[in-house]
């Protein structure tokens, strides 16, 4: 079936602040350069139709079928102009025929936004007195070290940047995305290194962890085994960030030796942001459900997401996007048909990315935004 090439969703808050997510796919029957041009034209048209200026862009993630060869071309086309934007490029082939696809996040409204490029990998955005740090493409930059060493170095980069802004990993980091070149081989080394580093930073089972996705993916360097994107908020108030689970459906991640939160909610005065970590067909005992059945696994994964959303006082109607990772691209047709029937109009992108257990055929993640009335919290 032919995918919808542009889908978007918008949230408008009580003071007129707009948050906008858009997924764009190009015409697949073109050369890579022409697909890149096609994607850019469709993106610009979507922004025009939504009445959004290009400078409202905050974050873009571009999914590539051949990151080593395609990355320089995309980087040259996406250089910062007068409006710095956080740019993530990851080797996760879009499934459906195209060589690339994009998900973008925009903010527009009456509150001024200031941007400061701190380094090639860190962008600081400030609005309404709150500082948001977007960190993209953190990697070892082609050092020939192991996955554990690269994981420690990547987090050290983020910790150093947060510290320079008066923040820290434990109190500021909201969400991470960890990409592994071969998840079946290197995932456990990453998990151990992260667990040790988290313990040193005060992130433990009796405190909290960080919402995260750990999935197969590659950056543009041949010898990088691990890379990461992250989103942090400086100066979060006590109780502004909460951690979500439904233990009748999903066990704590510590039960099987990993250290991430199932979902995280950040409260602002008029809205709550719910970040859903990578979620698969797992039960309350930590077991894989529906082995060999990708649709059965997808159905359970989405039911788990629904439980996490309800724990955050929202629902699927509040979802802004859904990102779906498939181990086997041949499952695309049945998965896309199922999703189109369940969530018409929701921005959904399906990419190739093996999950951390070989038995898991599919994983999903996303973000929801829902109205709340919490005037003691900062404005978004």
Describe it:
It is a single chain. By secondary structure, this protein is α+β, with helices and mostly antiparallel strands. The protein folds into three domains: 1-110, 2-Layer Sandwich (60s Ribosomal Protein L30, Chain: A), CATH 3.30.1330; 113-236, RutC-like (60s Ribosomal Protein L30, Chain: A, 2-Layer Sandwich); 244-252 and 262-380, 60s Ribosomal Protein L30, Chain: A (2-Layer Sandwich), CATH 3.30.1330.40. The protein is 26% helix and 33% strand. The strands form three sheets. A six-stranded mixed β-sheet has the order 6-7-8-11-9-10. A six-stranded mixed β-sheet has the order 12-13-14-17-15-16, with helices on one face. The model has no long low-confidence stretch (mean pLDDT 96).
Topology:
Layout: E1 6-12, E2 18-24, H1 32-50, E3 57-64, H2 67-77, E4 86-91, E5 100-108, E6 113-119, E7 122-127, E8 130-139, H3 147-164, H4 169-172, E9 173-180, H5 183-200, E10 211-216, E11 226-234, E12 241-244, E13 263-267, E14 271-279, H6 294-311, E15 319-326, H7 332-342, E16 348-352, E17 362-371
Parallel strand pairs: 3-4, 9-10, 15-16
Antiparallel strand pairs: 1-2, 2-5, 3-5, 6-7, 7-8, 8-11, 9-11, 12-13, 13-14, 14-17, 15-17
Helix pairs in contact: 3-5
Task: Write a brief caption for the model.
The protein has 380 residues and is of the alpha+beta class. The chain has helices spanning 32-50, 67-77, 147-164, 169-172, 183-200, 294-311, 332-342; strands at 6-12, 18-24, 57-64, 86-91, 100-108, 113-119, 122-127, 130-139, 173-180, 211-216, 226-234, 241-244, 263-267, 271-279, 319-326, 348-352, 362-371.
């Amino acid at each position: 079936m032919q995918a919808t090439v542009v889908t978007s969703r918008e949230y408008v808050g009580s003071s007129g602040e707009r948050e906008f997510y858009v997924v764009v796919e190009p015409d697949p029957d073109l050369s890579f350069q022409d697909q890149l041009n096609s994607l850019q034209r469709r993106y610009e048209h979507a922004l025009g139709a939504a009445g959004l200026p290009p400078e409202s862009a905050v974050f873009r993630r571009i999914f590539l079928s051949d990151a080593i060869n395609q990355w320089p071309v995309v980087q040259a086309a996406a250089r910062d102009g007068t409006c710095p934007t956080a740019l993530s490029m990851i080797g996760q082939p879009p499934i459906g025929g195209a060589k690339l696809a994009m998900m973008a996040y925009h903010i527009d409204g009456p509150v001024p936004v200031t941007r400061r490029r701190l380094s090639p990998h860190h962008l600081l955005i400030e609005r309404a007195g709150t500082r948001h740090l977007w960190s993209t493409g953190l990697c070892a930059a082609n050092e020939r070290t192991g996955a554990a060493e690269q994981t420690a170095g990547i987090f050290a980069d983020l910790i150093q940047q947060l510290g320079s802004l008066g923040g820290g990993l434990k109190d500021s980091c909201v969400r991470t995305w960890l990409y592994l070149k071969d998840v079946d081989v290197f995932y456990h080394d990453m998990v151990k290194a992260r667990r040790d580093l988290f313990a040193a930073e005060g992130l433990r089972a009796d405190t909290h962890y960080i919402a995260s996705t750990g999935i197969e993916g590659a950056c543009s360097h041949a010898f990088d085994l691990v890379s990461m994107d992250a989103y942090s908020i400086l100066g979060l108030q006590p109780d502004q960030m909460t951690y979500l689970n439904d233990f009748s459906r999903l066990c704590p991640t510590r039960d099987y030796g990993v250290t991430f939160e199932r979902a995280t909610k950040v409260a602002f005065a008029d809205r709550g942001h719910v970040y859903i970590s990578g979620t698969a067909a797992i039960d309350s005992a930590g077991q894989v459900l529906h082995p060999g059945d990708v649709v059965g696994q997808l159905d359970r994964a989405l039911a788990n997401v629904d439980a996490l959303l309800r724990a955050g006082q929202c629902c699927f109607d509040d979802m802004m996007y859904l990102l779906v990772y498939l181990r086997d691209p041949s499952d695309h047709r049945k998965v896309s048909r199922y999703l189109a029937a369940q969530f018409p109009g929701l921005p959904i992108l399906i990419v190739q990315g093996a999950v951390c257990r070989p038995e898991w055929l599919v994983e999903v993640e996303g973000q929801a935004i829902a109205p709340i009335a919490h005037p003691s919290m900062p404005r978004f």
